[in-house]
Amino acid sequence: MREGQNVIYRADYQPPAYWIDTVELCFDLDPAKTRVLNRMKLRRNAQMPAQPLRLDGEELNLARVLVNGQGTSFKMENGQLVLENLPAGDEPFELEIFSTCAPAKNTTLSGLYTSGDSFFTQCEAEGFRRITYFLDRPDVMASYTVLIRADKARYPVLLSNGNLVDQGELDDGRHFAKWVDPHRKPSYLFALVAGQLVAREQRITSRAGKEHLLQVYVRPGDLDKTEHAMNSLMASVAWDEARFGLPLDLERFMIVATSDFNMGAMENKGLNIFNTKYVLASQATATDTDFFNIESVVGHEYFHNWTGNRITCRDWFQLSLKEGLTVFRDQEFSMDLAGEASARAVKRIEDVRVLRTMQFPEDAGPMAHPVRPEQYLEINNFYTVTVYEKGAEVVRMMQTLVGREGFRRGMDQYFQRHDGQAVTCDDFSQAIADANPGSRLAQTLEQFRRWYSQAGTPRVKAEGRWDADSGIYSLTLSQSCPPTPDQPAKDPFVIPIGLGLISGGVEIANGMHVLTEQSETLTFPGLQSEPVPSILRGFSAPVVLEFDYPDEQLLALLAHDADPFNRWEAGQRLALGRALAYLRTPGLARSDIRLDAPFVEAMRGILRHPTLDPAFKELVLTLPAETYISEQLDTVDPQRVHMVRDAMREQLAQALFHDWEWAFEQHRENGAYRPDPRSSGRRALAGLSLMHLCIAARKSGDTVWPGKTLQRFKDASNMTDRFNALTALVVSGHELAAPALARFHATFQDDALVLDKWFALQAGAPDRGGNILPIVKQLMNHPDFNIRNPNRARSLIFSYCNANPGAFHRPDAAGYVFWSERVTELDAFNPQVAARLARALDRWKKLEEPLRSAAREAIARVAAKPDLSNDVREVVTRALAD
User: What are the pLDDT digits (tens) for 365-415?
Assistant: First the structure.
């Protein structure tokens, strides 16, 4: 049954009744009252029945409407401007709309808003309607000319999409800039920036011999932190042209950074607007992770220039058409830049960790939806890890099924067919299949598309059987998928499964099997002894593998598997099995947790291994996340999960104490700072070693290593080493953490992004006696905390509610009360951020009592608020649904 008047359904899609061919916008910028003159050329869509023109608009003051230069009648209906008396026939007509808006009052950070002394826009998904009345939907693509006028002293830089064609002085100290975007685009890709900005510039020459200007704009004082972003942009341009033959198609490409931004970045055509978090970096203020994320996000937004901008979505249900594909492209970009096979493997493992700790729970929760959703109340709620990360896995499986060269042929086909169009996920998969007619993708295309239409994480159960008499090993693979909202039953998926067999430490078989039936059996004859199967190599499909590996097989895989992912996975399974065994032990006390010698020795073997990449060692020796452990249980007490994981980590710290000392000393010095994979991996292992040494010291009472850690914190020449040392002190709960935190704040109090780390570290620290929530509440009153800044809100509130389950799920339910108050507070001025915070209790039904009842009461308390935004209402309503 369809409930709710405002729910949008994919099945109801209809093309627009009108097309907009050209748009001329004139802005007179003023924070209190910006004037927007919008001249459009429209024509009726001959494929649709004659009907009124309905233009979207929000928070606008309408002053004038002209059709072909003449006044006309209109009405307002359900928030839309409705025009009925329009010229008949198919001839184009001109529509002129003059309206005003108040950017300074726009706290949603959607549409045109002010941040400090500058103007910015964010139009995806439906923000353009807050700028002017328009057909604000992705399948209406037009050519834009933009004239910006503003006070020159206050707003010396005036930017918009495309190419700068004119600029000059005006009366009364004002000036103007005129921009023309030669490429048709939907309104969500419109961008405008004006303010006190400075730019790093770089001229490049493409393979075709064309010269382009690259610019990175930031606030004065931040220019010295833009070198890495510029290098990442140059690398992105070069990579996309080399790997996919896709050149930069504008005279210039601009990036602008702002601290007030709801997202990470936005791919507006030729004028990408970024959160400062993904632009600004120096070795003194940014960690290796920050450097890596900047490279990845800059690449992602640039790659959208073709996969999202030149070809865009027909409707918002097709969001993964651009996002899943572009996440795949930025993952490939990062792996290609990493170079060495070990660094590529580390990147793959890191991507899978995100998928399994964030997307798998989403697939199992109330907000579960297919990669291509069927309905939504608020589209902003579907910018999810399912659409992005799982969508990328779907694209990766296509590449697996057609091969790397075949995928390139498919991409070429896609652009030849659809450049300049708004299309669907089916159009994309059809192009890849048509370019590879004999491939498994082409043979199974309709079945493969179930990845787009069916929600949930498929489970692949594997059962091995060894017949010593015949020398035959049989492996039976069967698939299933749990019910999800509105989808109680699922049809079989197409699942590529990387396979290998190991015997005596040597690989004896390696290949790929494509599972299409409910169950299939593979046989391997002519074997001398029972092999160890290595299944789902490289995480070849986004599924849960169920295979009852005995410890001896996992230890063999950890020691010998040639596939780095499954080697890491073997270590994770060994740790997970022990954590689950402890959690299922009635009456378990912390003192009962004792790691067995085989597991400890296996971890020592990895840590001391002479040839393994340090970054890989750090991944293997990091225990599975609390959220991932929790997902393996039917009911969860998050504090008990935290206790078990923390005790296991303490055991590793003590049992491998001298090995951690060795690892730290071997990897602590790396010469001049470079954020390359090799150096970053060494720093990561040194940081993990330091944390374990401080944890061991907490148990033993030793003061040597905490003292060394504080000294390293003080002497560090880069933020990675400094923050690793600070984290070690905070996580271990040592008394030296307090003075170190105070010193860190005093040193970096004028750097917003570094202060975000300071807030996040304290909110995400292990809970000892319920101390974290009082700390969070105290920090909310800190002079440097501002809940209206999304980065700052995320750093403190989200780090506690979304990323610290052991502290958030308190027996007294105080964490839930805090959550409900913050969701309501944020919703009053920024619904997008509020809705993301609301997702913290998605999995409340898995909680043990009395936590479950307390969580439900908190969600119901939010849902009962009469003035909730659609953003939050959709999340809490779905959470409460049976």
Answer: 999 999 999 999 999 999 999 999 999 999 999 999 999 999 999 999 999
Spacing of C-alpha 236 from chain mean position: 19
Residue 835 and residue 874 in contact, taking contact as beta carbons nearer than 8 Å? yes
State the Cα–Cα distance between residues 829 and 788, nearest whole angstrom: 8
**Distances 734 to 502, 668, 694 between C-alpha atoms, Å:** 45, 21, 8
Cα–Cα nearest to 537, from 570, 568, 499 = 499
How many angstroms separate the CA atoms of 766 and 639, rounded? 10
Residue 2 has pLDDT above 70, yes or no: no
Element (H, E) at 120: strand 118-122
- Decide: 524 and 531 in contact? Cβ < 8 Å: yes
User: Which residue segments constitute the domains of the chain, with CATH numbers given?
Assistant: 1-160+187-195 (2.60.40.1730), 312-453 (1.10.390.10), 459-548 (2.60.40.1840), 749-882 (1.25.50.10)
Active-site residue 825, yes or no? no
Q: Kindly give the residue spans of alpha helices, DSSP state H, lying in 118-273.
A: 227-244
Please write down the HEC assignment for all residues of 398-429.
Answer: HHHHHCHHHHHHHHHHHHHHHCCCEECHHHHH
Q: In what order do the strands lie in the sheet with 75-77?
A: 53-56, 80-83, 75-77
Q: What is the token pair recorded at 455?
A: 């929600």
Averaged pLDDT, 798-810: 98
pTM for this structure?
0.98
Q: How far apart are CA 733 and CA 29, in angstroms?
A: 51
Coil, strand, or helix at residue 49? coil
Mean pLDDT of the chain: 97
Spatial CA neighbour of 190 closest among 271, 259, 133, 246: 271
* Beta bridge mates, 514: 496
Whether residue 770 is predicted with pLDDT greater than 90 in this model: the reply is: yes
561 backbone dihedrals φ, ψ, rounded to 5°: -60, 130
pLDDT tens-digit series, residues 222-256: 999 999 999 999 999 999 999 999 999 999 999 99
- Count CB atoms within 10 A of the CB of residue 568: 25
* Cis-peptide, bond into residue 455, ω within 30° of zero: no
Beta bridge partners of 479: 460
Contact, 695 vs 649, CB < 8 A? yes
| Closest of 722, 663, 656, 723 to residue 695, by C-alpha | 656
The strand order across the sheet containing 252-258 reads 198-205, 211-218, 252-258, 271-275, 265-266
Residue from 301, 323, 569, 626 carrying the catalytic annotation: 301
How many Cα neighbours within 13 Å face the side chain of 732?
A: 35
Q: Kindly list the distances between the CA atom of residue 568 and the CA atoms of 457, 575, 737, in Å, as whole numbers in the listed order.
A: 21, 11, 32
